[in-house]
Amino acid sequence: MANVAFIFVSFQSVVDDWIESYKHDRDIALLDLINFFIQCSGCKGVVTAEMFRHMQNSEIIRKMTEEFDEDSGDYPLTMAGPQWKKFKSSFCEFIGVLVRQCQYSIIYDEYMMDTVISLLTGLSDSQVRAFRHTSTLAAMKLMTALVNVALNLSINMDNTQRQYEAERNKIIGKRANDRLELLLQKRKELQENQDEIENMMNAIFKGVFVHRYRDAIAEIRAICIEEIGIWMKMYSDAFLNDSYLKYVGWTMHDKQGEVRLKCLTALQGLYYNKELNSKLELFTSRFKDRIVSMTLDKEYDVAVQAIKLLTLVLHSEEVLTAEDCENVYHLVYSAHRPVAVAAGEFLYKKLFSRRDPEDDGILKRRGRQSPNANLVKTLVFFFLESELHEHAAYLVDSMWDCATDLLKDWECMNSLLLEEPLNGEEPLTDRQESALIEIMLCTIRQAAECHPPVGRGTGKRVLTAKEKKTQLDDRTKITELFAVALPQLLAKYSVDAEKVTNLLQLPQYFDLEIYTTGRLEKHLDALLRQIRDIVEKHTDIDVLEACSKTYHALCNEEFTIFNRVDIARSQLIDELADKFNRLLEDFLQEGEEPDEDDAYQVLSTLKRITAFHNAHDLSRWDLFGCNYKLLKTGIENGDMPEQIVIHALQCTHYVILWQLAKITESSSTKEDLLRLKKQMRVFCQICQHYLTNVNTAVKEQAFTILCDVLMIFSHQIMTGGRDMLEPLVYTPDSSLQSELLSFILDHVFIDQDDDNNSADGQQDDEASKIEALHKRRNLLAAFCKLIVYTVVEMNTAADIFKQYMKYYNDYGDIIKETMSKTRQIDKIQCAKTLILSLQQLFNEMIQENGYNFDRSSPTFSGIKELARRFALTFGLDQLKTREAIAMLHKDGIEFAFKEPNPQGESHPPLNLAFLDILSEFSSKLLRQDKRTVYVYLEKFMTFQMSLRREDVWLPLMSYRNSLLAGGDDDTMSVISGISSRGSTVRNKKTKPATGKRKVPEESSSSDSMWLNREQTMHTPVMMQTPQLTSTIMREPKRLRPEESYMGVYPMQPEHHQAPLDYKYVDDRRGTSLMEDDEEPIVEDVMMSSEGRIEDLNEGMDFDTMDIDLPPSKNRRERTELKPDFFDPASIMDESLPFFPT
């Protein structure tokens, strides 16, 4: 039976066999059960009959502890695999079956249960985690089974008492005295059994629960809280009182999420039963604020369950204040969907689920008179009050699961927008109508696409057959309703740009086939007329692009309505193109000064054409020529309005992209390729001219388009077997690269205040700052993309990399990713670029401060810190970056000695201080490469340099020492006759590195290394300098063995034979089974504002907490329930720290 493989055997038969064995010889049967618990803990030891008869439980447990394999990291309850997951549930089920089968006889023999409870109590206090974990689980499941037995006894006692009263109330002639005596005897037996059960439960509760619910191991604490929740729910009359609820309340401050989660799920089971709410009132008032705060828990699972618990608390009227509810309301906009959905359900239950009695008579009404009308208005009011108008999609998604009928009542929403208000009804304001249209669009999108908005969820999932059918039904319903209503809505709101923009997105979700099958062609014509009118009325870019996308959605060749829509689109474009050519001819006439009205007409027409060219191929209207004339005139005259230039550049960009798409998708002639090549290069020259425009917006547009064109027409264009496009490949010359880089330096790497001052009347507020930063980040990303894809030279990145520290908060992620990508392309060239950026900063510092600068100045320290950051980006694998790091040192050394001092060799080279910066990379060299770099350094040094000890020579000494650190002294090119003083200093300061991972040495032959030096080259004779190690270069202090974790958890003498293993000592850090000190087990590990709560046992009289089952309805002789431990008098007692401070 002790074999763990019992999980595959029928529990009923196993327990029955054990009961028979117990009846035959209870000692042997109990020995079998004891060994079962021992072996389920993963212990290989066996309790013999001799030990069972002559040893106390504590002695048996000590013996088993000695035989336990403490090096084993796992035990059955924590082992992975399906069979071990099954083991835990089977283990728990076995205990329940055992008690259930023994509940009528064996458990009352005062031997079997006493032995088991005593063993489990002893094991639960063991230092071996496996013993403690397994025995706690067994004891808690045993308690749960006993609670069930106690509940059945209580029911039987009530039934017996009722039968007794009924029999006694009969008249004397019909009363059966024998039956009365039998019932009295039965009630007495039940009472005795219940007293026995109470004693057993008290032993488990006080011996196991009150100690283990604050165990050092989170899993053990979670087991205790989960089970006490079951007891309170199963037998609420006995356990649902403040004496037990307080444990759950305290543990809600636990530092581990899984324990807090068990608290919330336990409370959910209680609050779900409305009949128990009266018993929870005091607990709710005490711990409500903690539950509300847990909605913002760092663990999302805990936050979700906290919101669900508060949703159940709503059943109790006026428990949650308006402020409490508002704390949950805003979570509907959370990016984490489970949290948002839980908050959406809370919001729906609070604001939308209550129906007025008058609504019952209008349930069948539809449209504006439907009961959903007021709910839709409430949703609009809530959305507007939340002041998050760009997040309607998040609000809809949060409520989608719980309020589907409301959110899909598009007929009601449409009626609220189109129909006149009823008598006495307040009409919607303009702001409310805009919000309703936005919400309606979001509900339609959610129904048609069947996936959450961007930012929620991991992506599109595969829909089930039922979901696909619902999706098709919803699209049909949407199309049938709005195919008719959309033209009316557009006509009503045609002058409102915001409303029209949202309404024009609806056709994207139509089932276009219904226009034909439903004979709705006249409504399609009405829609096309409305779109045409809107194009003529509006010049807003968002509105025009929405019109363009609507035409694109309707112009689907798969449907029969294509020809009708295509004709309407072509007529519109014809008129716009003709009007543009006519206006442009008048606008560009020589000798005439164009007035503002002409400029406005040209701009508005150009906006419309550009918006349509974005989604439609307008190649047959030949728009390149007229845009080219417009842009060329702007360059020549310099007085072209900025908006006209911006949209002309954008439109020309679209022309080139559509031509490239046609050439790529179909066979094209050589003439087509040459024409596109010519147009593209001419366009790039125009954009390059506009990079020097006085207007910032024009320069930004030209830069963005240039980056896109250079990216598209780079060598990447030939990938995928498109070699025929080779003539189109365009590589920017050095002047263009230089101008692009200058634009980045002038418009991206600037102070926030400078950017605000350059903006045209832009207000200096947070929103404008964020928008400006976002725009600058996009500009930088566009240029960095050119570097990453080798469109521009990699060394241009030096000017970008050197800004890494100064603009880390704004662009650090972009620059770091660029470093990573360039290193993947060419490690050596990337390293040369990094050192070049440091050299540029060094030269800038020299120009500003001169050569006699202070090496402790913030500027120089900033360059050193940047070098340190660069070094960190090389990672830990020195073999992969070996050549790159070596080349970096080579370039750095050459730069340091590049400029000799005009005053002679007795003075240091002008750039010698750069070696101080270069030393930040020395730690990335392999040991043998340090020797090689050291030899290369000696080539630039003279004998006089090696003798210098003045402060100006400290960079050289520091760099040399950084190369000597970790190297073999006998291989260094140093003289043997070092002075005794120098030798003593070096011996004191250099210690052999210990505990480091050794990299295998590789031979560095002369023909394979970057130095290309002669093997026979002799090094100059130099004096050894003392090692001057900076704080940055010094290795972190290592703990001596006696200073390690032993000071935190002192080992007991009996466990001190084995050498200390870190994971063996602190089981909260690893998976070890032993704790070598009792203190971590009994210490309180729950969270509080001060870190820990005082020991909860201190000052607490557990005698008053005996489990006392409630009296039956007719048992007047029983005492009442124990006193309320949430009594204000108890709370004020400082010796009872019930609540965390």
From TrEMBL:
It is found in: Nucleus; Chromosome; Chromosome, Centromere. Residues 150-203 form a coiled coil. Its main location: nucleus. GO terms for cellular component: chromatin; chromosome, centromeric region; cohesin complex; nucleus. Residues 209-294 form the SCD domain. Residues 976-985 have a biased composition (Polar residues). InterPro entries: ARM-type_fold, Cohesin_Scc3/SA, HEAT_SCC3-SA, SCD, STAG. Residues 976-1008, 1102-1122 are annotated as: Disordered. GO terms for molecular function: chromatin binding. Residues 986-997 have a biased composition (Basic residues). The keyword Coiled coil applies. Keywords: Cell cycle, Cell division, Chromosome, Chromosome partition, Coiled coil, Nucleus. It comes from the Eukaryota. One of its GO terms (biological process) is cell division. The keyword Cell cycle applies. Belongs to the SCC3 family. Part of the cohesin complex which is composed of a heterodimer between a SMC1 protein (SMC1A or SMC1B) and SMC3, which are attached via their hinge domain, and RAD21 which link them at their heads, and one STAG protein. Component of cohesin complex, a complex required for the cohesion of sister chromatids after DNA replication. The cohesin complex apparently forms a large proteinaceous ring within which sister chromatids can be trapped. At anaphase, the complex is cleaved and dissociates from chromatin, allowing sister chromatids to segregate. This is Cohesin subunit SA.
